[in-house]
Amino acid sequence: MTTNSRSHPKRQGASSHRLRWVDRAAIMTLVLLLLTAFTTPSAFASSLDQGGRYNATFGSATNNLISTAAEMNSASPSSGSCVIISILLAGATNQVETGLPRCNGISVDGTCPSGQIFVETSYGSGFKCNPHGSFALGSYYSIGVARPATGNWVGQVSHVNYAGIVGGWPSSVYSRTWGEWTSTGGHTCSGWGASGIFSGWTYRSNAGSTQSFTNNNTTVAAGCWTVGTLNGGAYSVSH
Description:
The chain is mainly beta. It has 1 helix and 15 strands; from the N terminus they run αβββββββββββββββ.
């Protein structure tokens, strides 16, 4: 995932006192709205750290599914942060991500709470996130990104397609599975922890053949994360 955030009338005669109180009420309402926005922030306001593996780019028109069985084993996000185990597909300004988040005092994009599998989309004009069912630590969940129609990639949870992006995809896209830490504060490798496993990370061609991501895999953006050895498409991430 990528970081994203967040004149007085003149006094006139006897009516001016009333106008001042109307203004004060409006100002207080605005202040309360602003305070609410800052006290219930979205994730991804300023800091981000990701570690995992990516596959070399491939033709977006020749494959129709990238999926994995993902497990979050442990999660201890610091205050104002989330730790996430996810799978991502991206190309040009488009991005679809499906993941497992645990958060402390914030949510993902203000709409996806801690403990709910999410699908997040972005096409260059901000991020939108929707929750799709709860998950438990220590259990595997099928998450992925699917292409049910030409020019259309969607998030997938337990083999069910959800929101995605239609159009704007380039001829080549890339996929990543990784652990993420995202925070409203400054970047730090201390004060938080998480671990997870990706099992059987695969892609399926339009012809129906399923292949494991065992070749052309590279550790990406390790940062604070330790990325485990790839074994038949499966590997671990931890911090």
